[in-house]
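Quick note —
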Amino acid sequence: MSFPKNFLWGGATAANQLEGAYNEGGKGLSCPDVCTGGTATRSKRITPELEEGTFYPSHMAIDHYHRYKEDIALFAEMGFKMYRFSIAWTRIFPNGDDECANEEGLQFYDNLIDECLKYNIEPMITISHYEVPFNLTKKWNAWADRRTIQCYLNYCEAIFKRYKGKVKYWLTFNEINSATSAIGNFLSMGVLNNIRPMSFMEQTDIPQVRFQALHHQLVASALAVKMAHEIDPNYQLGDMNIMMTSYPLTCDPEDVLFNQKRSQLSNWFCSDVQCRGAYPNYMKRYFEDNNIHIVMEENDAQILKEGTVDFYTCSYYMSVCNTVNPDKTAGKGNILGGTPNPYLKASDWGWQIDPTGLRYSLNEIWDRYQKPIFVVENGLGAYDKIEEDGTVNDTYRIEYLRSHIEAMKEAVHDGVDLRGFTPWGCIDLVSASTGEMAKRYGFIFVERYDDGTGDFSRRKKKSFDWYKQVIATNGEDLG
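Predicted structure written out below.
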């Protein structure tokens, strides 16, 4: 029972959460750039006009833009085989709808990719990772308008042609299924139904607009897959979903049915379209029940059919339970909602820790699609403390990752075709949901704090050397 010899170990990040330099190199404003800092208990705010004296975490983030060589060298020291990162759309097309690509932005990613290749690290690039050009939001509500498809394709064409021969693996959208929940409006699609300062966690949600915008993303993904294969037959394109693993809280048949319906919507809808090439029948009932009418152009069905992905990827952090009982308390964590599982412990942020759920999920995904799988996000967000001797003893992170790697190993033994593992936030970065630095995931501690202080210096945590040994032994020595 072991991982394949060519298993791709590595780590994952997103441009808007680590690069900083939000207005350098010709970059335009992206949606995260207008989000203030927040905490686990206080939502960040969306401010369509930047406020003087307000802290915006993405503006400097962890300054990876100026320190990428140092960071890639640390990843290489750990032994990374793969590095999943994203390209900031607004570095390439600052306004989203520009006629020409920004050469300085293209060159930055040339340099970043070359730095990875220097250490034999395989790049996996997320094309759109929660960073829609804010100009498109102001202009026509971003993905709610079909014109955004062509803007996205222009962006794809520029990067597919520019990095041909250097990059093999691409992901069209990060956690595309986040748009099946209200939080996905601005986060994933740049949809802002009220252009005014507002709470990120309490956006105005119009399901008709949200699912129409998601349809546009699904069409864009399919067209991008087709374009990529035409530009370079060696390109491999994947989807990327949040795996929102859930169980019925009880064996009451109503709980079981309710959980099935929730899972169909949150876990399977988008990947069914991207892996199978058509809207699943269960969504017809959902749309009918919720008075949603998806406007499709004549060729959309054919586009979806011809643009299926080559492999499947997901993030996995936690699981929840579902019940029809209204008296049960809602749980915390990511965008999953649901009810806490009485058999599981939780992280500092209330995310329930369930490695067995990862094995269960990987088997479900493999049985459903029979496509190669990568787990491209997994990890423990925690309050890390620097000890008096300068060390960060994150044994809790090691324990979390060890148990999930063991679960993946079991899934491989079950027969799942698992190709790689890139845990999230391999270096500390800004949280997408709360905008805070205090929620740390990395193997590398970054001196950057929620009040904007810190010198950005890097130091290895205890988990750094542990993960280095995991990679060196291909997952055999888990410490």
